[in-house]
Amino acid sequence: MSRAPSMTWRRRDDVAGRPWHGRVRDYDLFKEVTIGFIVVAALTLGLAAVFGSPDEPPVTFASWSTSDPVDFASTATAELAGTSDTAQYGPPYNDTPGATQTLGPIDLQSLSGVRLPIDTAKAFVLGPLQTLPTVPPAVARWNAASAAQQARWTDAYAKALAADTGTSLPRPAVAYGPVPAIVASLSAMARSGALDGALASQNGFYQLSRTPAILFLGDGQYFQNLAAQQHLTGGQWGMMNETGNTPGQAWLWLFSFFYQIEPFASLPNADLVVVLIMGVLTLLLALLPFIPGLRTIPRWIPLHRVIWRDYYKATRLSASTGQSATASSAAASSPAPSGTFERDPSSPRSETG
Questions:
Q1: What is the spatial distance between Cα 162 and Cα 96, in angstroms, rounded to a whole number?
Q2: What count of Cα atoms within 13 Å lies in the side-chain half-sphere of residue 131?
């Protein structure tokens, strides 16, 4: 009776421990790698020549402030007031209480701490304006006011922007203080293209960090609307999409899947829950050979036997040949039947009873 294949890592006399009896041929690894590289490179160049690649124009502050000046002004006012999404995001940008996503005692967002502190008023509005050859006088007036007075100014101007349904900014008023002048100067700076460079140069000589610019863009509706048009939001499988009609990261389908179904789609801590689910699934996959029940799935669904059918065919033939040889050897060495006496080599003859 043959024993079922073992799924353990210990060496046993099962299918995995038996010698290979299938076909054997020479295999030149370097040759195969070279051929594969040439074929893939030719296909890539050919498809790129025919179909091209996504070439969406970059999103800049110039295009934002020109296309939707009211949204730019509203976002700049929120950054100045400290009420934008970035200003209230929590770690790693600030320590806003209750801003992190938690699941019971699990709070992954707070583990890193505030590693990239960002004061949105200084980083996105006042700091860039102070890089201008002539700093607007409204900046000094803002800095000299108390926090309570600043909050009253930004609150009044934000309400005026929200009530304005056109494309022009509200006219300055006493209740707005220096906020309209600050926003107008920042809008002019954005339209000239200087704001992009000012935000990128905040981390030193090398202008490689796009984090401040992306955070500022992400706080407004303009950038989010562009993402929705390209089907890149979380509710549109955006995690696995690409701009235009170009196929995206299809291997992220499972990660993006949970954002499309309830209750995950409406959870306030959906990001944390999905990350934990994917972590558990990844752990199960890594520990699959060691988990009883899961590791025996190949026995229930023997798909591997179809893939390696030549090997199993050769193994069955080898096993049947070995069993036949064992049976013949056992028959040759078995004792004589009852009533028959085998000839003793020392005896001159044999007798039968």
A1: 25
A2: 18
**What's the pLDDT score for residue 344?**
47
Residues of the chain short of pLDDT 50, as ranges, are 1, 339-353
- What is the per-residue pLDDT for 70? 94
Q: Which two tokens stand for residue 285?
A: 């996959």
Helix axes 221-229, 69-81, angle to 10 degrees: 130
Instruction: State the pLDDT at residue 318.
Output: 77
SS (H, E, C) the chain: CCCCCCCCCCCCCCCCCCCCCCCCCCCCHHHHHHHHHHHHHHHHHHHHHHHCCCCCCCCCHHHHHHHCHHHHHHHHHHHHHCCCCCCCCCCCCCCCCCCCCCECCECHHHCCCCCCCCCHHHHHHHHHHCCCCCCCHHHHHHHHCCHHHHHHHHHHHHHHHHHCCCCCCCCCCHHHCCHHHHHHHHHHHHHCCHHHHHHHHHHCCCCCCCHHHHHHHHCCHHHHHHHHHCCCCHHHCHHHCCCCCCCCCHHHHHHHHHHHCCCHHHCCCHHHHHHHHHHHHHHHHHCHHHCCCHHHHHHHCCHHHHHCHHHHHHHHHHHHHHHHHHHHHHHHCCCCCCCECCCCCCCCCCCEC
What pLDDT, on the 0 to 100 scale, is given for residue 339? 45
Report pLDDT for 52.
Answer: 73
CA separation for the pair 60, 189 (Å, rounded): 12
